[in-house]
From TrEMBL:
Start and end residues of each ANTAR domain: 178-239
A Pfam family it matches: ANTAR
Superkingdom: Bacteria
Matching Gene3D superfamilies: 3.30.450.40, Winged helix-like DNA-binding domain superfamily/Winged helix DNA-binding domain
Protein name as annotated: GAF domain-containing protein
Keyword Isomerase appears in the UniProt entry: no
GO molecular function, one term: kinase activity
Length: 260
């Protein structure tokens, strides 16, 4: 098989559309899973695995074409060595068409990959402006008899693989941003809800204590601190009547039933 398979325009479009996902992230396919399927269908590879860095920069296996390559990639990270780890560190494509020649360079990865039946490996980075968030590693199985290995995967194949990886990285970044904005929105809603309840509690204390809302807030905050209660939780209890307001106002607790 030649290094670059014959690819139709329709196949290329389908691969890139799958990687881009939906603009609002609802119902979008996993971009890293789509990346694996894309390189498997468009390039001369026998397996593929994607490494993705977490917020601390630690790499982990995020997608793979099968369990065997996932185990190879995960075990190699313990070193860490292998083209994927080097690619992530150097921001550049890294690999070899002949893994036997890479035993000294990547002893752990090479032994595992050769044992799994892979003969070559090449990694391209998942790039964003100014940073790399991971790498996709292309694994080659034994080439057909009479087929050389020195040109694998080929310049055109690497260009296509990098294009797929770039779109996948952009989609991952967009999804992360959407999730982050959703968390921030929820935090803002919670903060606003808490503020409303606190204002209501201040009004209740001011009315029962016969003083202004500033003094009511001082009493509310002081009681919460002395008793190690979250201010919002205390305010919520005052508003729904489950907290006796007398101790909050400096008086003794009541044993009478009903709201105070």
């Amino acid at each position: 098989m030649c290094p670059m398979q014959t690819v139709t325009e329709r196949e290329l479009i389908a691969a890139f559309v799958a990687l881009a996902g939906s603009p609002d992230d609802r119902g979008a396919d996993d971009p890293l899973g789509s990346l694996v399927r894309g390189v498997m269908s468009l390039l001369d590879v026998g397996a593929a695995g994607v490494l993705l860095a977490d917020a601390d920069g630690t790499l982990g296996v995020a997608a793979s074409s099968d369990d065997v390559v996932a185990q190879v990639e995960a075990a190699a990270l313990a070193g860490p060595d292998g083209p994927g780890a080097d690619c992530y560190r150097t921001f550049t494509a890294v690999g070899t068409p002949d893994l036997v020649a890479a035993l000294d360079r990547w002893p752990r990865f090479t032994a595992l990959a050769l044992g799994a039946g892979y003969t070559g490996a090449y990694a391209v980075p998942l790039r964003l402006p100014g940073e790399v968030i991971g790498a996709v590693t292309l694994h080659r199985v034994a080439p057909a008899p009479g087929t050389g290995t020195d040109t694998w995967p080929g310049d055109d194949a690497l260009v296509l693989a990098q294009g797929l990886a770039d779109v996948a990285a952009a989609t991952v970044a967009r999804q992360r941003a959407l999730r982050h904005s959703g968390v921030l929105a929820q935090q803002l809603r919670s903060a606003l809800d808490s503020r409303v309840v606190i204002e209501q509690a201040k009004g209740i204390l001011a009315e029962r204590g016969g003083f202004g809302v500033d003094e009511a807030f001082t009493q509310l905050r002081g009681y919460a601190r002395r008793n190690r209660i979250r201010l919002a939780d205390l305010a919520d209890g005052i508003v729904d009547g489950t907290v006796d307001t007398r101790p909050v106002l400096g008086g003794p607790a009541t044993v009478a039933r009903g709201r105070r």
